[in-house]
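BUG: 3D viewer hangs when loading the predicted structure for this chain

Environment: internal workstation, default settings.
Expected: structure renders.
Actual: progress bar stalls at 90%.

Input used:
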Amino acid sequence: MMLQSPAERREADARLQPLAGRAGFLSAGMATIVSLAFIAMVLAVSFILTTRSGVTAMSVDFRVFWGAAKLAVAGEPLAVHDLARLGASHATGLDVDMPWLYPPAFLVMVTPLGLVPFAWAYLAWALLSLALTAWAARSFVAGIGPLWVLMAFAPAYFPALMMGQTSLFWLAALLAAIAALGQGRWVLAGVFIGLLTLKPQLGVMIPVALLAIGAWRTILSASVTTVLLLALPTLYYGIDYWPLLRATLEDQSALILASDIALNLMLSPMYLLANLGVDLAVALNIQLGLMALT
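Structure tokens produced before the viewer hung:
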């Protein structure tokens, strides 16, 4: 089964050709300069701040990954679920709940970051994010260099890079999965989709899409990848990881449902309804119902 015929692919590629001209080069150049300038500025600030006495990390989301990585390197991986220990690890001193909410495979992924100081880990995270995105975007640019540069260094990535979030990793995995599906590489596509289960809420509709096209080998491959990502790190860290993670998730859920935290920062039916005055618990049930219907 082919998701796109050769003729359809040629037609789609032809629509991208205007970006191969001067306008494309100018757009790519401007986007790259703007993006790299902002990224360089933030990274420079991270090096400057963390050279000060008593400052170990910047107050960005990435501090949680780095703090957890330090605990894992120190041989205390289960301590990532202790909010006080995690806060002491990155030592930013913020009175804000930033718990560890990830499966054990993600802790394995970030552990090497704990071997180096914050600024170097932050730099490596940003560069790896951009490199993987650039690699995954190759199949979508019809060989047009400026378009590839635009996809690799889009200014839209800056918020994720500035905060040290995981968004670009998941974007790269999703792009790679779509490219593999388009090339009929069903098993490889499943591996990339399985990697997305490291943050499963981002891909809730992917199984539905795979069922719709009858991609059974991809479903099997994704399932096997997911099981391995769950089982192998669990064997390494121990089964106690999961009750601790569940307790953290329950605490965080209770915190959200008991307050109006971040109501203006979230984009979802639940938070839209909450902003309109609907009780948070009711809004959550409505969102879950919408998910079930789709």
